[in-house]
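We emphasize that the prediction below concerns an isolated chain of 291 residues; any contacts that depend on oligomerization or on bound cofactors are therefore not represented. The input was used exactly as deposited, without trimming of termini.
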Amino acid sequence: MELDRASLRNTIYNLYVKEHEELGTEGAYRLLDEARRWDLSKTLKKGGVIVFPHAGIADCGHQIAAAVHACLDSCADRVIVLSVLHAFTQEMEDARVRVAQGGDVRKETLWGIQGTGIEGPRQEWRNDHALYSFRYLWAAETARRGIRGPEVIERYPYLAGGKPEILPGIDELAKLAEDAVIVSTADPFHHGIGYNTPPDEALYPLEGGLDLARETIQEGIDILAAGDYWGYNQHCVRAKSDARDAGQVFRYLRGPMTGTILDLSYTDSTDMYQAPPPTWVAGALIEWKLA
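Result of the prediction step, given as a token string:
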């Protein structure tokens, strides 16, 4: 049965609204305080990248909060957030499949970078949920500190296709990145029956699933660290990772880096996909340091 992508987008959006209402300001502060176990500001100051998830805020909000603190504590004047752009239309999914099968990205109308301040016909980023929790925690922490905070520029690359260097808008983004810190969001491992994992291969998170997630995510980190953009693109297809475009772009912008998984969590997605368990997504806080 074909996935109703528009309906799924609305389901996810409504779920996020509900989760944030339940969290409230005090809950946001609790996550922000919990995230103080990490100080990642030095990594950003030195040109590295912090990758945070965008799954359920109750499960991975502390990881998102760590990225918020890293940005604010870096004292940067500008923050670039490289985000996933989910395929919530069949047109977007079809383009993704064609590129993954070796199609020419230059023939795709969706090829390029969307985001704040970019005019044009492609504005799919406005309906994406990937930065909903980041914005929420950012607003909570800047209000608590009584500061405005640095300029935040959101960028949503789509169809890097193993060639981030020719992505339309990449030169402008590289210029912006010269005096900015970079963070990115990704859910790098989706698993289970709702994500079309064969039932006899589907693992529950605490029964080997998270071990598989860690191993798979590390495999992707190693491929991207080596600068193998096409290999990383195809890894993301296999791992059901939504990091394929943003990952290629930040690696291209910053050059050789090494990545480390600092924390791993998971969110159950059975209700979201109305699928039997196990159906879940792994959330990871990943630190990328310049090599």
